[in-house]
């Protein structure tokens, strides 16, 4: 009889994930250049209407640079990880992290993006962070680009819309692969690469407001990122022979809202539009279903000779993805809508929602793992998952976040089921193990952490770190390799 895999593999990589622009702060220290994330201002919830967009326009950037905008820019300050990393990493080590996912801030290393020589102080900062992690036996998992592009590349080239940016990126990638070759083995190229199609400014520093066909720009930029990702994968394999490179998708598993075949087709279409990004990375070719989408939206991807070969020859070693929720699709325009991570959907009556209206669907994670593994037959890595919630600090300083424990427990249970189903899962890094600035709303009060950070939405607070109840819970989960979830 075939034996069922039960439990997590021995070397399972448990940990947490962050992004430079949401934690580091120090946005103008030690030679760092401005990045697109530094231009994102805080808009209080009461002022965020239905048309609230993450995309910053050229006009807004000009006004910000001219000092005409009186606002807070929380991603410039983060949680000051730049000066607290030793303390924060010590807490990760106390929880027993096997890995820590972080991103490099490109503009800290190449302040203008198109510089020929790197900023030594920027490189030295990450050396210190990696040394600190390795001191505790924590494996760094590094994202090259997580929602920040050096601002100069946006202003001068319109970000990833311009093919020349591929060369600047590969120069950056080569620089960091060489520099950290003895410290970092696991790499990711672009965080949630599909976001370039949903928020081109966030995903690729692309300004689309004056474009005749914004989709043309977004998908052309995606093509450039695919090439850059493939070339970085090639370089990484050459420079660090034992390295593993993954792509990263915001997986938005979409169910048909009913069994009406039209809803089923709509859901299939949504899933194809999402999985297109992993298809290119894993299979090395554009899937044929995109031809119709491109034709119907007047999109013509400009390719150069050799592009197809680059994509084909340098596919990824593993697939990583974020999973927060599932979505539902219907052709009927009516019905309650739900919020989501860059994309909402229609309400699923079987699911509860978070404080921010995101649908909580642990079984959707099992579905997603099976689905991705069947499609690609490559190892999978969940590099983001978690619950953004309001936390209350009690008078004695304790924080009882049982709702977070509940969310994580249910998702980890489903990971176990997926492993039994036969899925090859390398690791799990929950999002925001320490509270950080929200990517979508720049709020501090949307907290994901096991570690609380004393800072409010207005930037007031001591930045003191303290442990929530989930801290000891996750420590136990890791120590038992996922067996003790109580
Ligand atoms: C993912 C991003 O989309 O979701 C993270 O990769 C982000 O950067 C996370 O923080 C959670 O989203 P939010 O908007 O709650 O911060």
UniProtKB/TrEMBL annotation:
One of its GO terms (biological process) is carbohydrate catabolic process. It holds the Pfam family Glyco_hydro_1. One of its GO terms (molecular function) is beta-glucosidase activity. InterPro entries: GH, GH_1_N_CS, Glyco_hydro_1, Glyco_hydro_1_AS. The active site is at residue 384. Keywords: Glycosidase, Hydrolase. One of its GO terms (cellular component) is cytosol. SUPFAM superfamilies: (Trans)glycosidases. Belongs to the glycosyl hydrolase 1 family. PANTHER family: 6-PHOSPHO-BETA-GLUCOSIDASE ASCB-RELATED (PTHR10353:SF122), GLYCOSYL HYDROLASE (PTHR10353). NCBIfam families: PRK09593.1, PRK09852.1. This is Glycosyl hydrolase family protein.
